[in-house]
Amino acid sequence: MKKTLSIFLTILMLLTPSVSFATQTTNTEEPKEIRNQNIYVPTKNGVQRATYEEAVKIEELNQEPLIELCDSYILGDYKSGKILESYNIDEIKSMASMSKLVSIFVVMDKIKDGTISKDDIVTIDHESAMLSGSTYKLKENEQVDVWTLVKASLIVSGNDAITALAKHISGSKEAFVVLMNDKCKELGLENAHMVNPTGLTDYSIEDYNKMTTREMFFLTRELIKEYPELLEITSMPKLEDDTRNFLEYNTNPLLGIVEGIDGLKTGYTNASGRCLVATGLRKGVEGKSLDTRLIGITTGSKNDWSRYVAAKRLLGEGFETYKYKVVGNVEKPVKTIEVEEASKDKVEVYEENTGSVLWDGKSEIKKQISIEPGLKAPIAAGEVVGTITYKMNDEQILKSDLIVKERVSERGFLFKIKNAYEDIFSNIGKVA
Question: Domain Peptidase S11 D-Ala-D-Ala carboxypeptidase A C-terminal, which positions (predicted)?
Answer without folding.
Answer: 319-410
